[in-house]
Amino acid sequence: MGMSETYTRSTTRRDRLFLLSALAIGLLTLLGKAGEEADLEKTIKANTTKTRSYSLFRQGCIYYELLPTMREEWALPLMENFYRYLKNHRIYRSVFGII
Question: Between the CA atoms of 55, 56, 62 and 63, what dihedral angle is there, to the nearest 10 degrees?
C-alpha cells in the first residue's frame, strides 16, 4: 500500500497512516467479498477456472477501478452487498457512523 516509500518523523503521523492503510485494505477486501457474492468474479477471471483466481483484496481493487464505468446491472448488486457488509461490521459502523 505504499507505506515503504513513506517517510515521516512523527510516530503519531506514521501510526495514523498505518490506520488509514488498514482501513483501506479492509474496505477493499469487503468490496471483493461483495463482488464475489454478487457473482461478478466471472467477469474478471478466465472462464476455464472453477476456483477463485484472485484474492478478495485483489478483486476489491479491480472492482474499485472498474466501478466508474461498470454496467448498472453489475454495480447495483455490488454496492448493495457492500453496504450490507459494511453495515454489519462493528468497527466500520463506529468509524464511519459519524459520516
Answer: 160
